[in-house]
Amino acid sequence: MKYQAIAFDLDGTLLSPNATILESSKQAIQKAREKGIKVYFVTGRHHTAVRPYYAEMNLDTPVVCCNGTYLYDFQKDDVLESNPLTPALASMLINNAQAEGIHVSVYFRDAMTYEELNPHFVKLQKWVDSCPENVRPDVHQVEKFQKEIDNGTTVWKVLISDPDLAKMQKFVDALPLDQVSPEWSWVDRADITAVGNSKGAMLAKLLEREGINPAQVVAFGDNFNDISMLQLVGLGIAMGGSEDEVQQKADKTIGSNSEDSIATELTQLFQL
What we know:
The protein has eleven helices and 14 strands. By secondary structure, it is an alpha/beta fold. The chain has two domains: 5-82 and 198-270, Rossmann fold, CATH 3.40.50.1000; 87-194, Hypothetical Protein, Haloacid Dehalogenase-like Hydrolase, Chain: A, domain 2 (2-Layer Sandwich), CATH 3.30.1240.10. The protein has a six-stranded mixed beta sheet, with helices on both faces.
């Protein structure tokens, strides 16, 4: 099988544990691109938090963002495909989660927002501040999410987080699955988007736009929200250390994101 494209999850996969792209991965990706291989980012991140890596890799392809909620074109600041939350649904999710004492952040059209800081956003803000100003992500505090919603701002996703995993699971289990798609993006965090959204579904739309058969794509991922993507493509690869279910659904498992495992795999696959 001659593969034409590579799809990468970011956190836990292409990004090392300290949120950088390994030099070996960068070199292997560049060599693959020189052979005509397309490279796509498929992430749970908002596009504003993809921008530093997109610029670092000098990519020119659309990005699947927020677990398949939208397809973003950096060149034109254009949303090519999307399925956002309705204002009413977003408000319901926010109010219900806050009533349970669960931390909420909301990803609006152009920014990642929070009403109150939590450890995740403290860490995120440190990373944001370390980014070059020209590619710095827009992460900021808002007084009230509802005010932004009432102003008509598009809501991509509601992110909930709590160290009490039983409380989190109970909240997720009670969600109306005919209206929303919850995805666990970390052990204590769940992303809630409009029903039907997944990395695999939006990657399929992207590949159709690009004229590429999914069977001719290699994908790398590490978490539950990557399973739909790993199962869509011709070769789905799980990172070492990822959850057992992710590894079981993938075609193979390689080393961890702290090792040169991606570079080694790409070198073998594409004879770099």
